[in-house]
Write a structure and sequence with these properties.
The complex is a heterodimer of chains A (about 240) and B (about 200). Chain A is mostly beta strands and about 240 residues long. Chain A has a single domain, classed as Protocatechuate 3,4-Dioxygenase, subunit A (Sandwich), CATH 2.60.130. Helix content of chain A is about 5%, strand content about 25%. In chain A, a hairpin with a 5-residue loop joins β6 and β7. The longest helix of chain A is centred in the last third of the chain and has 5 residues. Chain B is mainly beta. Chain B has three helices and ten strands. In chain B, strands 1, 2, 3, 4, 5, 6, 7, 8 and 9 form a nine-stranded mixed β-sheet that branches. Chain B is globular and about 45 Å long. The two termini of chain B are about 30 Å apart. Classes of the chains: A mainly beta (about 240), B mainly beta (about 200). β1 of chain A pairs parallel with β10 of chain B, so a sheet runs across the interface. The complex binds fe (ii) ion. The site of fe (ii) ion has 3 residues of chain A, from β8. Fe (ii) ion (FE2) binds next to β8 of chain A.
């Protein structure tokens, strides 16, 4: 049997812990026993593959993928682009990236969202892309607005876009959120601050990228995503090492 | 000293209450993509023993987590993970619970025993779970094993890592039958009495 493409262990001091009491919902939704550490088997080092046949032509254009033909979503037009890399700085090609967000008023198109900002009839709020050979993805959308949520009496989420990324191994599976450079709400948010290290939070803040803007048309933000890296097998593990 | 030039993994954030918009828009209440993902890792015409897997995810107070989203990854009936999906079998499923009750279910074929780590023999048939929801800061990983595989379960290298033997039972789905079809019940307790074993994979 060929050696497994084992992943670097997840850095649990960089990742948010399960229990973060200031984010109240985590209190009853966090395991109280420690996670059992598993060395990778094929169940963790393999994962699903998605082909381009899955995508429609407008899947990465949120300005238009839910709009009446000839119309467009309302709000500040932005491009979000970046690369999916691993911890070895290698591109992760051919992987599915999904994204979803509130509209330019801070309202989600979801039957459970009752915030009073209006639904935009031309905005669905979700899209997806598959990374190219160099791990790049891009999409076009409107900048989402902050919205209030029930935690303390007066909590507002910083403007954000949710991301889901697969990678090539099920153990690389990741969900996260992208924030926008300069948003003062980032540092007030108990969900953001579930991440203990400010440098790790910085990894979620997308800078304005003037080089990627379309003059007279669309602003741009750059958001790179790093998935767990693959370990090269320098020496085989001994059996006793599990 | 030279710097170690590894990058850091992007930190996780909760999927939030509206995860369905991005990952299962039909469940959020609208139709947007031409092609949507299927909850089932195998189609009704796939080869193998057809089964239903169902359960409820509960929080530390015992209440159902009604907004949970689950993804599963499994080997084919021959024990191999597929590297190219076919119309009959992808090995992967994305499951949304009923918003009213929290109950979830999917249909698949029973996986075969996959190869364990080098020198450890085969693993008992199992399905890998990844669980996200509002309040879950980083996806929870666990495995579901099958009650009717007692012998394989007893030899499974992962189940045997669980020091408290009675906790191994939290990963073993109970087999029943409905309309002549096997149904495995796999309730997941995120916290508290009978807490499911979760893995750092
Ligand atoms: Fe959100």
């Amino acid at each position: 049997m060929a050696p497994l493409d084992e992943l670097f262990p997840r850095d649990r001091e960089w990742q948010p812990p399960a229990l973060t009491p200031d984010y109240k919902t985590s209190v009853a939704r966090s395991p109280s026993y420690p996670l059992l550490s598993l060395q990778n088997s094929v169940s963790e080092t393999t994962g699903p593959v998605f082909g381009h046949d899955m995508l429609g032509p407008l899947d990465n254009d949120l300005l238009h993928n839910y709009a009446t033909p000839g119309e467009s979503a309302i709000g500040q037009r932005i491009i979000v682009h970046g690369r999916v890399l691993d911890e070895n700085s290698r591109p992760v090609p051919g992987t599915l990236v999904e994204f979803w967000q509130a509209n330019a008023g801070g309202r989600y198109r979801h039957k459970k969202d009752t915030y009073l900002a209006p639904i935009d009839p031309n905005f669905g709020g979700c899209g997806r892309a598959i990374t190219d050979d160099e791990g790049r993805y891009h999409f076009r959308t409107v900048k989402p607005a902050p919205y209030p949520w029930r935690n303390w009496v007066n909590n507002w989420r910083p403007a954000h876009i949710h991301f889901s990324i697969f990678g090539h191994a099920f153990a690389q599976r990741l969900i996260t959120q992208m924030y926008f450079e300069g948003d003062p709400l980032i540092w007030t948010c108990p969900i953001v601050k579930a991440i203990p290290d400010d440098r790790a939070i910085g990894q979620l803040i997308a800078p304005l990228d003037m080089n990627a803007t379309v003059p007279l048309d669309t602003m741009a933000y750059k958001f790179d995503i790093v998935l767990r890296g693959t370990r090269s097998t320098l020496f085989e593990n001994r059996l006793e090492g599990n | 000293m030279q710097p170690l030039d590894y990058q850091k993994e992007t930190p996780s954030q909760t999927a939030g209450p509206y995860v369905h918009i991005g990952l299962a828009p039909g469940a959020a209440g609208f139709d947007i993509f031409e092609k949507n993902f299927c909850p089932n890792p195998a189609s009704p015409t796939a080869a193998g023993e057809h089964i239903t897997v169902e359960g409820l995810v509960t929080d530390g107070t015992g209440a159902p987590i009604k907004d949970v989203l689950i993804e599963v990854w499994q080997a084919a009936p021959n024990g191999a993970y597929v590297d190219a999906p076919t119309a009959d079998f992808t090995g992967w499923g994305r499951i949304v619970s009923d918003f009213e009750t929290g109950e979830w279910s999917f249909d698949t074929v029973k996986p075969g025993p996959a190869e364990g780590r080098s020198g450890h023999g085969k693993m008992a048939p199992h399905i890998t779970f990844w669980i996200v929801a509002r309040g879950i800061n980083i996806g929870l990983n666990t495995r579901m094993y099958f009650e009717d595989e007692a012998e394989a379960n007893a030899a499974d290298p992962v189940l045997n890592l669980i020091e408290q033997q009675h906790r191994r039972a939290t990963l073993i789905a109970k087999r029943t039958e409905r309309d002549g079809k096997p149904v495995y019940r796999f309730d997941i307790r995120v916290q508290g009495d009978g807490e499911t074993v979760f893995f750092d994979i």
